[in-house]
Amino acid sequence: MEFRAETLACRRAGRLVFEGLSFALVSGQAAALRGPNGSGKSSLLRILAGLAPAAAGRASLDGLTLPGDGEAWRERVALAGHLDAVKPAFTVRGNLAAWAAFHGAPAARVDAALERFGLERLAEDPAHWCSAGQKRRLGLARLLVAARPVWLLDEPTVSLDAASTAVFAQVVREHCAAGGIALAATHVDLGFGDAVVTMPGRPQGTGPAEPPAQPAGEAAGASGGKSLDDPFLTGDWR
Ligand SMILES: Nc1ncnc2c1ncn2[C@@H]1O[C@H](COP(=O)(O)OP(=O)(O)OP(=O)(O)O)[C@@H](O)[C@H]1O
């Protein structure tokens, strides 16, 4: 499986957020998506999830492309977003059961996901009783229920304690070991991932015409390859 973005651009409310975003990830790879606040990481993940159109460029996943194959694309890609999207009136188990039903997934995955994220004790509680970290774990547990090959993760470890962060890192490593791909927007070290995709920043005619050579460990074709200390990334993007 290859997951590729080619010169993607994004506009929000008519304003250019980024352009020239390219990367390629293959089965087994987990990558950190890096860039300052407002650089468009969440917007990119929504585009890659097939939930919002790109202003330019294309993405491909094996034989599928965006735009074009939206429906089949969305069946292969899971987005764990910023917002927990937990149904507060449902129980913890009910949230995952509804997710399984929605995705036509076997109900047995619900118990496995509850166990994996340490939620069994809370399973019959209404989800609105959950703490922020518990809600986050519930949101992440849906990844195991839907079992899509590509995981798009938007700051997935926010609100998680160290133990839960370690569990999640292990879950992602296992997903990749089974041939999956993960791309995680993050400002911290997540404890998984062998590649970095860097947001290209808002172009002011100052960026390089061609992406620079990739340092070791960069995703093939990932734009930029700059560290967060790079002044291009830490300057005023607005
Ligand atoms: N619904 C919206 N309408 C208009 N502009 C938006 C909308 N949502 C986000 N934006 C703008 O798009 C830009 C990119 O936002 P986005 O949330 O993708 O950035 P981010 O890199 O994920 O930021 P952070 O690190 O703070 O989470 C920002 O300038 C933001 O103000």
Automatic annotation (TrEMBL):
Biological processes, Gene Ontology terms: cytochrome complex assembly
A GO MF term: ATP hydrolysis activity
Coiled coil: none
One Pfam family per UniProt: ABC_tran
Start and end residues of each stretch annotated as Disordered: 199-238
Source domain of life: Bacteria
Stretches assigned to the ABC transporter domain: 3-229
Keywords: ATP-binding, Cytochrome c-type biogenesis, Membrane, Nucleotide-binding, Translocase, Transport
Gene3D superfamilies in the cross-refs: P-loop containing nucleotide triphosphate hydrolases (3.40.50.300)
NCBIfam families referenced in this protein's UniProt entry, alphabetically: ccmA (TIGR01189)
Record-given protein name: Heme exporter protein A
UniProt lineage: Bacteria, Pseudomonadati, Pseudomonadota, Alphaproteobacteria, Rhodobacterales
